[in-house]
Structure formats: C-alpha cells, structure tokens
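Following the same procedure, backbone shapes were mapped to integers, yielding the entry below.
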Amino acid sequence: MHDNIQKIAQEAQLAMLYEVTCINKPGLVDPVDPGSHQDMDIFTFLQSSVVLTPYFEEFIQTGLDRQHQPIEETFMAIRQIGLEAETAMFSVTNGINTHKGAIFSLGIFLAICGRLTIWKVPCKKSFFQKEIQKMTKNLLNDFGKIDQTKPKAWTWGEYL
C-alpha cells in the first residue's frame, strides 16, 4: 500500500512541475517569464513543489485511515496537514505563496484518492465530484465572519 501512496504523491508533484514549465500562461509564472508575479520565478516554484511531496503522502494516508469515518471529518484532518504544508512552502520560498491553492485543491483530491484506494472504486470523474461536494459542503461557513477581518489580512481567494 505504501508504494501506491508514494506513487500517487509523486504524480501530484509531477503535475505541479509540469504546470510551471508550460509556456504562454498570461500572468502566470513560466520558465521565461514571472508573469504578474514579480516576487517569484520558476525556481521558487520548483523549490516549493519538491518540499510538498511528503504532505501529499499524508493527505492520501489520512484519506485511507479515515475511510470509515464521515468525509467531513477527513476534511478537518487534512486542513491541519494543509497548514503544515503551507508552513513548509513558506519556509523554502521565503514567505512567497507559490502553491497555497494547489495545496488546498490537491489535499482534497489526494485524500479522496486515499479513500478510493481501499474501496477499489473505479476512478470516475462523477465519483470525485460527489465526494468533493460532500467533503467541502460546509466550507462556505468559513467565510461567515470574513467581513469582520481586515481586507489586508485576506488571501487572494478570500478577496475574490
């Protein structure tokens, strides 16, 4: 089982590496242009991508370990892993947010992969969509008090 977890985590890392090496992404970092991100470059992304792989394994393992628990509880568990992954990312990028959104999205996706591993369910898009909806159904509750925080403290996603 550990080999499968490692393989899936490595595939997630490869996806991040492939994404940053694509050229002609207006506004986004690529090998020849930082786009609108003057505080980062491709090397910042490469550093971040490499440091995140162990956390990808943790997301998968958490999904696997919590397969018989309500999926909302899995979401709460992976949030902590996501925060740890963000700390690792910030430590190698000198505080630059290269992959916060990817950590969030891949964390959910990989935890569901962990749940699927044991169920031996076919990996269909519709199944993932349903599981993601179930896992994140209470997510908007996080934004209930956002108007009480200062806009300067918001992430770009919260601002949008």
Helices lie at 2-21, 42-65, 71-93, 100-119, 125-135, 156-159. Residues 2-159 form one domain. The first helix runs from residue 2 to 21. The CA atoms of residues 112 and 128 lie 7 Å apart.
